[in-house]
Amino acid sequence: MASSGFSWTLPDHPKLPKGKPVAVVVLDGWGEANADQYNCIHVAQTPVMDSLKNGAPEKWRLVKAHGTAVGLPSDDDMGNSEVGHNALGAGRIFAQGAKLVDRALASGKIYEGDGFNYIKESFENGASERGAKRIRVHILTDGRDVLDGSSVGFVETLESDLSQLREKGIDAQIASGGGRMYVTMDRYENDWDVVKRGWDAQVLGEAPHKFKSALEAVKTLRAEPNANDQYLPPFVIVDDSGKAVGPVLDGDAVVTINFRADRMVMLAKALEYADFDKFDRVRVPKIRYVGMLQYDGELKLPSRYLVSPPEIERTSGEYLVKNGIRTFACSETVKFGHVTFFWNGNRSGYLDETKEEYVEIPSDSGITFNVAPKMKALEIAEKARDALLSGKFDQVRVNLPNGDMVGHTGDIEATVVACKAADEAVKIILDAVEQVGGIYLVTADHGNAEDMVKRNKAGKPLLDKSGGIQILTSHTLLPVPVAIGGPGLHPGVKFRNDIQTPGLANVAATVMNLHGFEAPADYEPTLIEVAHN
Ligand SMILES: O=C(O)[C@@H](CO)OP(=O)(O)O
Ligand SMILES: [Mn+2]
Ligand SMILES: [Mn+2]
């Protein structure tokens, strides 16, 4: 085969110089919304971000961070950290897990692949459409991507689907449950107890709460003071004799029905690794395990899966490091993988450890972040500042988690404090950029803190049964800012106005330009142009 002529070498930018340190700041969950009392960014004192927006309008613009702009099925899909950071780092729009799974289900291909064939071997002479005769569902209530309290409706729907299966002679039941933030879905190894609580309920059939039905479980546990879907305690469903109806047993097939890599890697390790020392699994059933997707391409975890994940290659991080850009990346645990793993196309570890340093600041664990809304913003900013001042790095990249993590708690007062803390952190970083004559690019991965209320189509806040507002704990569909500046920025640089609907994927080429390079031809176009020399 003839050589494709591929080269990692990036062409020099015709006008922009090399050698200026570039700070890339991602404000997690920081979108642009109308100014009202439910916009915590507006309510909070955020003088630094305000000055970026109002001080130099030609160096501030909004980009799309949701839906098709980040590879999700439709523009009704809100953005999230995974797809947002993937797009920021990859500079192109890849069809994401959600879309790939939708497609595989619609075409039926999901039932033809290696993953499904593998679990099928566990089915005894099947009776259902696809062969499984005995099905146990271990549910996690959400309240984070959907409204708090919606768990009840979801359980009702699931129960009715399962009862239809039972009518066909399939033994199908919900076996256990718990709230996603307290049971199973930890990430980046922040708190293994979360995964252990899930393991105990799902695999061992042991939990502090026992119920005859999941609907009863969810309704009863939600009635406790301060209970919410995200943090429901673990429960198991028991039969009349008090025995758990569905612990995971030898010979079972197990599917983790979740396409979010970061939230599934820890459980996948517990299910798949023979050597595992994060908690005592007590009993390790011999199962056939598949993930909805492969969650970590480097670790090949899990080794079997139903749908192939997007292959995100030739990321901007990889190009830049191969073109000599020394890179520093930092966040606290809950978002550390965002500026490393997601940024690098769902790849763990260093691209080139001789040129990179990744620093993880331990997050608080075992608390909800409305209790400590400043999180580690200051510590992250100080690390970024030190990295800039050290002169050892060409790119310093951070994620400031506050708007997102505190926004998800639905606590408006705390989210205001969170936004202020993030703004103060930005100041520290921009001051350091100033000192070293560098350039900054400040952006976000999706909205969250800028709108904390559920609204009708006309934008009016919706009320609940008791007349209070319906708090929105999820991300939004709103655009996010991109602001550039700093003493190292060529004075002729301004945002182009010939790109109709720019999105997060346009940021990578922009950052490459700021480092003095042209982006690869297949990258989404840069946001900037140079007006004069
Ligand atoms: O916490 C998470 O897993 C999601 C919300 O479900 O948020 P983010 O995409 O910001 O990580
Ligand atoms: Mn995010
Ligand atoms: Mn989030």
TrEMBL record:
Catalytic residues, chain numbering: 81 (phosphoserine intermediate)
Binding site for Mn(2+) 1: 404, 408, 475
Pathway(s) where this gene product acts: Carbohydrate degradation; glycolysis; pyruvate from D-glyceraldehyde 3-phosphate: step 3/5
Major subcellular location class: cytoplasm
Entries under CDD domains matching the protein: iPGM
Keyword hit for Nucleotide-binding: no
Alphabetical UniProt keywords: Cytoplasm, Glycolysis, Isomerase, Manganese, Metal-binding
GO CC annotations on file: cytoplasm
Protein name as it appears in the record: phosphoglycerate mutase (2,3-diphosphoglycerate-independent)
High-level lineage: Eukaryota, Viridiplantae, Streptophyta, Embryophyta, Tracheophyta
